[in-house]
Amino acid sequence: MRDTLGSEGIAGVVVVLVAVGVLTVHDPIVGAGVMILLAGLALIAKGIADSTMRAFGLK
């Protein structure tokens, strides 16, 4: 995972997870909504990356 994301990417993932954790402790319903939102954004980013790679013939 470190080869793919690098140390800055791993730090970013940790910051996002900590922020969602703090939000979830404060209000679990909002925390769950934010997690669903982040999962949806990750799926969109993966789809864009896959289609871009296919366009360049890399996949």
Quick summary:
By secondary structure, the protein is mainly α. Helices cover 90% and strands 0% of the residues. The longest helix has 28 residues, at 28-55.
Keywords:
59 residues; transmembrane; mainly alpha; membrane; transmembrane helix; 2 helices
Helix content: over 70%
**Average pLDDT:** 90
The low-pLDDT segments are none
Q: Kindly, what is the distance between the CA atoms of the first and last residues, rounded to a whole number of angstroms? A: 20 Å
H/E series, N to C? HH
Question: Any idea how many domains?
Answer: 1
Based on CA inertia axes, which overall geometry fits? flat
**Rg over C-alpha atoms, rounded to the nearest angstrom:** 15 Å
Number of helices: 2
Task: Sketch the major β-sheet.
Answer: none
Strand content: under 5%
Pfam families: DUF7470
Keywords: Membrane, Transmembrane, Transmembrane helix
InterPro entries: DUF7470 (IPR055893)
